[in-house]
Design brief:
It is an enzyme of class 3 (hydrolase). The chain has nine helices and 14 strands. By secondary structure, the protein is α/β, with parallel strands linked by helices. Helix 4 packs across helix 9 and helix 5 packs antiparallel against helix 6.
Length: 253
C-alpha cells in the first residue's frame, strides 16, 4: 500500500491510498484538480471516494472527479447527501476496498454526522482528531466530541492518524503555552517547527505518539486539571475536555 497526502486549499489534505495493482481510494477531496493530477501522474485507477463529513473543504472536488471517473463509488454519512454520495454509511458498517476491510466509526462533534474510516493501521478521521489537537465543536457537543476522541483512543498504538488539516504546529503552540512544563510536548514542538519551516508534512502521526503530545487525549492528567483550576479528585472527563477546547478556541496566536 502507498499512502500520500495532497495539500489543497489553505491547509487541507486529501488522502489517497493505493494498492500495488494501481487501484486507489480518495478521501475527502476538497478540490479535484490536484487529485486528478496525482492520479494521472502515477497511472492509478480510483475505485472509491470516502467522505467524513459535509463541509465544502472536504467535498467540493467530488463532482468534478466523477466527471472523469463516473463509475466511482462514493461513501459518506447521511449529512453528505447531495455531495455525490451513493452509499450512505453509519457506525459499525463494514465494507471491503483494495482488499482491505474498512470499519465505519461514528465520530460526531465537529459535525453531527461526522464519521471516520478505519482499516488497520489507517484511520481517516477528517476533522475529529488532529496531531496535537482536535476539531472545533461546531454542530455537536463537547461531550460528543470527547466520546469520539475516546473511541479513537481505544485503537491500537500503531494506528496512523490521517487527519484532514495541517494544524500540528499551531496546536503545539497552544499546547506549549498552556502546559509549558511538559518537556515531551516542547520537544515535539521543536521537531515540528523545523519540519514546517521546510514545508514538510507532519502527518500521518501514530496514535502512540498522540497519547503523549495531544492534551485532548490526556483528560485524566492531574496536572491538566490543576492548570484548568478543576477538582483533581471529583472530575468529569468530558468537562475537562470542554474546558480545554474553550481555552483553545479563545487562544490568540
Amino acid at each position: 500500500m502507498k499512502l500520500i497526502s495532497i495539500p489543497v486549499r489553505k491547509d487541507n489534505y486529501v488522502w489517497i491510498l493505493s494498492a500495488n495493482d494501481g487501484q486507489c481510494l480518495i478521501i475527502d477531496p476538497g478540490e479535484a484538480e490536484p487529485v486528478l493530477q496525482i492520479i494521472n501522474q502515477y497511472g492509478w485507477s480510483p475505485v472509491a471516494i470516502l467522505l467524513t463529513h459535509h463541509h465544502n473543504d472536504h467535498t467540493d472536488g467530488v463532482f468534478k472527479i466523477l466527471l472523469f471517473y463516473p463509475n466511482l463509488m462514493v461513501f459518506g454519512p447521511l449529512e453528505t447527501q447531495g455531495k455525490g454520495v451513493q452509499i450512505f454509511v453509519e457506525e459499525g458498517d463494514q465494507f471491503y476496498l483494495l482488499g482491505l476491510k474498512f470499519i465505519v466509526m461514528s465520530t460526531p462533534g465537529h459535525t453531527l454526522g461526522h464519521v471516520s474510516y478505519y482499516s488497520e493501521p489507517y484511520l481517516f478521521c477528517g476533522d475529529t482528531l488532529f496531531s496535537a489537537g482536535c476539531g472545533r465543536v461546531f454542530e455537536g457537543t463537547p461531550q460528543q466530541m470527547f466520546q469520539s476522541l475516546q473511541k479513537i483512543n481505544r485503537l491500537p498504538d500503531s494506528t496512523l492518524i490521517c487527519s484532514a488539516h495541517e494544524y500540528t504546529l499551531s496546536n503545539l503552540i497552544f499546547a506549549c503555552a498552556f502546559y509549558p512544563t511538559d518537556l515531551v510536548i516542547k520537544k515535539y514542538y521543536l521537531q515540528v517547527k523545523i519540519l514546517r519551516e521546510k514545508n514538510r508534512v507532519t502527518l500521518p502521526t501514530r496514535l502512540e505518539s498522540e497519547r503523549k503530545i495531544n492534551i485532548f487525549l490526556r483528560t485524566q492528567d492531574i496536572n491538566i486539571h490543576r492548570l484548568l483550576n478543576m477538582d483533581v479528585v471529583n472530575f468529569i472527563e468530558w468537562e475537562v475536555f470542554s474546558a480545554l477546547r474553550k481555552k483553545k478556541d479563545l487562544f490568540i496566536y
